[in-house]
Specification:
Elements: H1 2-21, E1 26-29, H2 44-54, E2 58-61, E3 77-84, E4 91-98, E5 104-107, E6 111-113, H3 118-129, H4 146-149, E7 173-186, E8 189-193, E9 199-205, E10 211-216, E11 219-226, E12 229-236, E13 239-248
Parallel strand pairs: 1-2, 1-3, 7-13
Antiparallel strand pairs: 3-4, 4-5, 4-6, 7-8, 8-9, 9-10, 10-11, 11-12, 12-13
């Protein structure tokens, strides 16, 4: 009986959120979350942006140019943040979406990970937190009055259009890895080997197409396709590195 009551409460809660969140189409993701010291640390900001797009939102990082029709309409936007509640052995994060008055419109359950390595732990916990969106059944309501949806308000300091000064995106140091690699399937992903054969990278599946959590020796990062090429990106001494890799799947 308690489980039935709890399930009903959760369903009513999500239904209440849905009545509000369906009025919003755009979400701004900050380039840096408050509990981290660097822009896009652990790729959490770009991953949050991509995962929101998976659930049909139009999401932008706070240093990206916004569409003209909503660039000056801050109350037409939601603003994403992450909250953490870590312990010594568990990484816990949840996603919070607020409106222009700093009111919570939707928040997920905490996603958790017991992985020791920070990059993998935060990304695993983030993806688990996003599972709450599966229950939301989000569908943008474009029939609402434009005067309400595009109301203006003083712009939050964290969000800027391209014509204004914005936090610059992190520009990676680019490296070309010579020689073609070959992908061999492993549990939950692939290992990329050269002709010796030697394992050069291990890449692990995510919920996004052509986007993997990856490792190369002690380096942890992401492996993804862009403009017809494959890239491995990671941080080295607080500097973003980007390796272009030729790989045959």
């Amino acid at each position: 009986m308690k489980k039935i009551v709890l399930s009903l409460i959760l369903l009513l809660s999500f239904a209440s959120y849905s009545q509000n969140i369906n009025d919003y189409q755009y979400v701004i993701v900050p380039i840096k979350f408050e509990f981290l010291k660097e822009n896009d640390r652990y790729r959490l900001n770009t991953t949050t942006k991509f995962l929101l797009q998976k659930y049909k939102f139009k999401s932008y990082l706070s240093n990206e140019e916004l569409p003209v029709e909503i660039a000056n309409s801050r109350c037409a936007l939601l603003y994403a943040s992450l909250a953490e509640d870590n312990t010594m052995f568990v990484t816990k994060v949840k996603v919070v979406l607020k409106d222009c008055y700093d009111r919570v419109v939707f928040e997920t359950a905490f996603g958790t990970s017991r992985t020791k390595e920070y990059f993998a732990a935060y990304n695993e916990a983030l993806r688990e937190a996003f599972k709450s969106f599966d229950q939301l059944n989000y569908q943008y309501n474009d029939s609402q009055p434009k005067e309400k949806s595009l109301g203006k308000i003083d712009e939050p300091a964290e969000v800027r259009t391209a014509s204004e000064k914005a936090i610059p995106a992190t520009e990676p140091t680019k490296v070309l890895v010579s020689g073609q690699l070959y992908a061999q399937p492993i549990a939950n992903g692939f290992q990329l080997i050269n002709t010796e054969p030697k394992v050069m990278y291990k890449i692990y599946n995510t919920s996004l197409k052509d986007y993997f959590i990856a490792s190369k020796g002690s380096q942890q990062g992401v492996f993804f396709a862009k403009d017809g090429s494959w890239f491995f990106e990671y941080y080295q001494n607080d500097k973003l590195m980007s390796e272009r890799v030729e790989v045959k799947f």
